[in-house]
Every structure is written in structure tokens, then in C-alpha cells.
Design a protein that fits this description.
Blueprint lengths: L22 E4 L6 E4 L4 H25 L4 H23 L3 H6 L6 H7 L2
Helix pairs in contact: 1-2
Length: 116
């Protein structure tokens, strides 16, 4: 028995739906991009949790550097920024910080620019 006569042909319909749910952001001159899944509620929750961690890191930097010479402030700032780089990479994808900042540990000011 040939079932080909029972097959309904899809005239121009491929059966797929595509919803744009991410922002694609160019982050450097080499063409690297990061994707921000703006319609993902888990991403939004994680984003606000990360902002809380940034606030905590800022407090940690202030307390660890208070009363120290500039040369003694570098290490605690770098330690906190490495932690924040990990947070960014976890949220925006592996190598996000490498794409955005290059091969450096950014200062808090440069990292804040990332969000502007």
C-alpha cells in the first residue's frame, strides 16, 4: 500500500518558528560578539545577582585598601576584579572578558564602562 497519496504537502511552510530572544553585541574590532538573552528570566535574575556581587566587591576593595599605600592597593583590587571577571564570563559566556577587555585584568572603572 502506497501512503504517498495520503501525504499532505506543505506549500512553502517549513514548520519552524524563530523568535529573536537575544541581543547580539559587538565587543571589539575583531568582530567578537556576546549574546544577551534578554527574554530569559533566569539570565535577568543572574544579572541582578551579579550586580549585588559587584557591590560586595566594591565594599571589599574599599575595606582592603583603606589606609594602604597605592602600591599595596593593587593586589586586593586585582583579586576582586579577577572574581568579577569570572562572574562576567559565567553570565555572558566563556571568554567574555577576553573579548571585551583583551588580555588584562581590568580596573573597576573599565569594568563599569562595560555596563554603560
Amino acid at each position: 500500500m502506497d501512503n504517498s497519496s495520503n501525504t499532505v504537502k506543505n506549500a512553502g511552510i517549513d514548520g519552524s518558528i524563530r523568535i529573536k530572544s537575544s541581543l547580539r553585541i559587538n565587543v571589539n574590532d575583531e568582530g567578537d560578539v556576546i549574546l544577551i538573552p534578554v527574554e530569559d528570566t533566569q539570565f535577568i535574575e543572574d544579572f541582578f545577582n551579579m550586580l549585588d556581587k559587584f557591590t560586595e566587591a566594591s565594599r571589599n576593595i574599599k575595606s582592603k585598601t583603606a589606609g594602604k599605600d597605592v602600591s599595596e592597593q593593587v593586589k586586593p583590587v586585582a583579586e576582586e576584579m579577577r572574581g568579577m571577571m569570572t562572574e562576567l564570563d559565567n553570565l555572558f559566556g566563556e571568554r567574555c572578558c577576553r573579548k571585551v577587555f583583551g588580555n588584562i585584568v581590568p580596573t573597576p572603572y573599565i569594568m563599569a564602562d562595560f555596563f554603560d
